[in-house]
Amino acid sequence: MSLNxxxxxxxxxxxxxxxxxxxxxxxxxxxxxxxxxxLKEKKNxxx
Length: 47
What we know:
Blueprint: H1 3-11, H2 27-35, H3 37-46
């Protein structure tokens, strides 16, 4: 088995990982979004 195959095998379980965390903006960030629409667009593009 090659070194790459061993690395792939080691991290294969990460493909099955399920995460149900939900991230929300902090209240002070929401206030900034109202004042600066460009900031809001940048934040939404990361999601």
